[in-house]
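<discrete_fold_record>
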Amino acid sequence: MLTIENLSATVADKPILNGLSLTVNAGEIHAIMGPNGAGKSTLSYVLGGRPGYEVTGGSVTFDGQDLLEMDAHERAAAGLFLGFQYPVEIPGVSNVQFLREALNSQRKARGQDPLSGGEFLKLAKDKAALLKLDMDMMKRNVNVGFSGGEKKRNEMVQMGILDPKFAVLDETDSGLDIDALKTVGEGINAIMRAPDKAVLLITHYQRLLDYVQPDYVHILAKGRIVKTGGPDLARRLEDEGYDEVMAA
């Protein structure tokens, strides 16, 4: 589904990604871990098409298409979802209206009919219940006044409504307490664990992986994937740290 070959990228003329290669097949969940400054968030922003991240080499193919030739909205319409490490607040725009416009814009790009207000509200209620997010919060301005955990759960509701093929989740576990961590983990499984979907889950800690069991765990360091293993690799990192595991 996603093939990255020798990807290099800079931010403000500083090299961050240095020949990164990775393949994620449909039906798989891959976790990426790594020390601060390794390039994890840069990878997510490059895949999402965020301005200011310049690709200087390599290629990315998504579902048979050249991802790097697509604008951000085209990537979203093709089925790519980016979950931010720090979800932004959008004052003056209600959650419900924002998500209905986003979903119907994507449906239009795919040649599908838009959802009516009633159809959308039913969908939104179902997905909000899955993430234990009160519908009153769905009617508030996007993320305004939300706690860190509420912002992350709200973002998972967005993912459920948009129903992407591929989700790139950048430190979705940051800011979550124990209960919210379990809820978000169960939500990721319910929404994205399917034979025709895939997830790239970026995290610092093994704790989320207790709920979202990945097929592969990768260590990203100095802009490249330097080691790949199974879920046991994440547990080793938790116990021993990056330096010890990478030295071994």
Summary: Residues 2-90+165-247 form a domain with the Rossmann fold fold (CATH 3.40.50.300). DSSP finds nine helices and twelve strands in the chain. The two ends are 31 Å apart (CA to CA).
